Amino acid sequence: MFGPASPRSRPQPGHLYDVAVVGAGLAGTELAWRLARAGQDVLLVSQALDHLGNLYQPTTRGVTFPPGSLFEEVRAALLPDTDGWTFHRHLKARVEETAGIHLLQSTVTALDEAEDRVALSTWEGPVLQARLVVLAVGAFLKGRLLVGDTMEEAGRLSEVAYDFLADDLTASGLWLIGGERHAQGEGVEPPYDVRFLTPAPGELSGFHVNRLERVRMLGQCTPGEHTYQSVLLDAERLAAALTEERA
Q1: DSSP state string for 159-203
Q2: What is the band of 161 on the pLDDT scale with cuts at 50, 70, 90?
Q3: What is the DSSP string of 98-161?
Q4: Residue span of the structural domain in which 59 resides
Q5: DSSP 10-22
Q6: DSSP-derived secondary structure for 76-104
Q7: CA neighbours closer than 13 Å in the CB half-sphere of residue 132
Q8: What is the CATH number of the domain that holds 20?
Q9: Among candidates 169, 180, 160, which has minimal Cα distance to 223?
Q10: Are 17 and 210 in contact, with CB atoms under 8 Å apart?
Q11: 3-state DSSP call for residue 205?
Q12: Are 86 and 59 in contact (CB under 8 A)?
């Protein structure tokens, strides 16, 4: 499907990546890591690289990650330390040292499919190119965060929502419906609710967005109940499927 293998990530203007992963939470980070280790040239885009791989809690104490996942490798290597910030720093370092991943801090606003690629428009201006795009944007499609009587345009505390991207997907014909989740908050963080958009039933076949040939969706931004365990296992399954398609 993807044609000849690309050179390892050389992000000059016009570079064509094998896969662009939009969103660097659990799902996107795990997927990019697995794809790169399988030899693919991967662009991992996040609105804030300081939030790469962030958990919804400040500690890894009591958290279960699947064996063989990047997250479990980092968690096990740090024990007995379970501090969430330490975990995040080491996870980010592991991603940065993985050959084949290009990390980019940018805001993707629109997707434009061509015969053999997808152009990703960004708020900052540069257009990115990839043979296939995976949206792993969590609770950020038109995310609205509610803390008491206060509401902000965010998918998580201090993390901005993807409003333009949600509008572009809707303009492409994708039917998006409302989802909601509650974060308990620990330490100095207050509890909060977040409302966001996900594809309606029938809009996805597995990970594939039916209306867009070269777009997949993964993780919290897809319908259903999700846990750390299930999201990472889904990332493993999608990585295996995309690697098989490329072979």
Answers
A1: EE-BHHHHHHHHHTT--EEEEEEEE---TTPPPEEEEEEEEPTTS
A2: confident
A3: STTEEEEE--EEEEEE-SS-EEEEETTS--EEEEEEEE--TT-BT-EEEETTEEESEEETTEE-
A4: 16-137+201-246
A5: ---TT-EEEEEEE
A6: HHHTT--BHHHHHHHHHHHHHTSTTEEEE
A7: 26
A8: 3.50.50.60
A9: 180
A10: no
A11: strand
A12: no
**Residue written as tokens 């007995």?**
80
Q: What is the value of pTM for the model shown?
A: 0.90
Placement of tokens 């043979």 in the chain: 131
In a domain, 113, yes or no: yes
61-101 confidence digits (pLDDT tens): 989 899 999 999 999 999 999 998 899 999 999 999 999 99
Domain count, the chain: 1
pLDDT tens-digit map of 29-71: 999 999 999 999 999 999 988 889 888 778 899 898 999 999 9
Q: How far is CA 188 from the centre of its chain?
A: 26
Q: What is the dihedral of CA 40, 209, 71, 187, to 10 degrees?
A: 140
